[in-house]
Amino acid sequence: MNWMMVKEYLKRDDRALLPLGSTEQHAYLSLSVDSILAERLAVEAAEPLGVPVFPVVAYGITPYFRAFPGTITLRVETYLSLLRDILDVMAEQGFKRILIVNGHGGNTPAQGLIGEASHASWMENFPWTRLEKVEMPHEQKPMSDLDKLRRLDPKSLRQYLKDGNYGGFYQRDDEEMKKIWRTGVEETRALLVEGWD
To answer: What's the CA gap between 191 and 154, in Å, rounded?
Structure first.
């Protein structure tokens, strides 16, 4: 969309989606997994309804992965200021119903300080988050000690995790993953249609 199209859209509707991602290690998957998933989910949910999707915010809160090259993290105060500025301008321009599609658990400030329960496993492994010519391990990695993870500094965390996966299988059947994806799209679309109370 260009600005003139947005102006016309706002005459008939006030909904929009804002995908939130992150740029961080995901073991054998893309550094952009969280951004790819948030943006794709938002687009697939909104497109049939004609609701605009703003560009993904591709950086988030991920201090615990700083020791993995390619991971970029923002401070909590920087991230919250960035989101406040974006949302304030969107509201000022006429968007009153903004659905945030968050692709990164660490973007919840409290959670960003303690880490996540699963990372870089089959749960984020979709055909569109994989890198070409990168082979996934076939074995199941033993689960990491989550209490230990929370106590480690970034360099120690990298040494402990080795490849960045918290544990479990790296990949599941693509058809199974596509079913899970479709459910997420349907639930997000339902929020756009019904979830504004």
So the answer is: 36
pTM over 0.85: yes
- Tens of pLDDT along 76-133? 999 999 999 999 999 999 999 999 999 998 888 744 444 566 899 999 999 999 999 9
Cβ atoms of 136 and 28 closer than 8 Å: yes
Residue 155 to residues 29, 158, 164, Cα–Cα distance (Å): 20, 5, 12
How many helices (H) and strands (E) the chain has is answered by 7, 2
Query: What is the rounded CA–CA span in Å between residue 30 and residue 109?
Result: 23
Measuring CA to CA, which residue among 24, 179, 16, 29 is closest to residue 101? 16
Let me know: does 71 contact 25? Beta carbons within 8 Å.
yes
